[in-house]
Amino acid sequence: MNLLIDDVNRVRTLTFNRPDALNAFNEALYDETTVALRAAADDPEVGVVLLTGTGRAFSAGNDLVEMQARISVRGADLAPGEHGFYGMLDALVDFPKPLICAVNGLGVGIGATILGFADLAFMSSSARLKCPFTSLGVAPEAASSYLLPRLIGRQNAAWLLMSSEWISAEEAKDMGLVWRVCAPDELLSEARRHAEVLASKPLSSLKAVKQTMLAPIRADILAAVEREKALFTELVGAAANVDALAAFADRK
């Protein structure tokens, strides 16, 4: 299974489970995560969703081997799955309950930008994050061009989105990208402890808080997704992107 699902004390933990691929998102994982988020949103027994990963990665982002194969076979067909990347983004934008991320290891691309949708983010002290868009010759994604400047400030967001450099857990906390940094063996217990505090509250009230926090910016998030999608479609398959993907495939 690409995604493990576990329920304890009204907290549903969704664990990315492609450890041999560093939990990179292939189309199956996008689809399974989308379905799981929608199901958790509709389940009255779920108060909070906690996202984490197995092995040494949170998520290595898009599965670049699969992306290269899709580009070479079908051109810039970016979402051949049932839901795909944009289906998962819709599920994240629409998710009406608290969403907590526990970054257990490296987070790359969507493995970093997904934190823009987190209500609380915890990060292992040994984890690292990177947004590799410029090294891949593509545009940003997951509304990160809007959410990250709002969350961590324009200059921090500019560095993260433009440099393709790694940032440490402490740097992520200093920027405001994550809320707490934990020792690796304490990460999940700390994230779950806070998740259970929230899950013990009335669900109607939790949803009201989230709705009122997101309502003023929801249209801006969706607009950012569309802007990024247009630029991503324009740049994917162009020379810089093709060269970067070929170099990655050669290293593999």
From TrEMBL:
Keywords: Isomerase, Peroxisome. One of its GO terms (molecular function) is delta(3)-delta(2)-enoyl-CoA isomerase activity. This is Crotonase. It comes from the Bacteria. Its main location: other. It comes from Mycobacterium dioxanotrophicus. Pfam families: ECH_1. It is found in: Peroxisome.
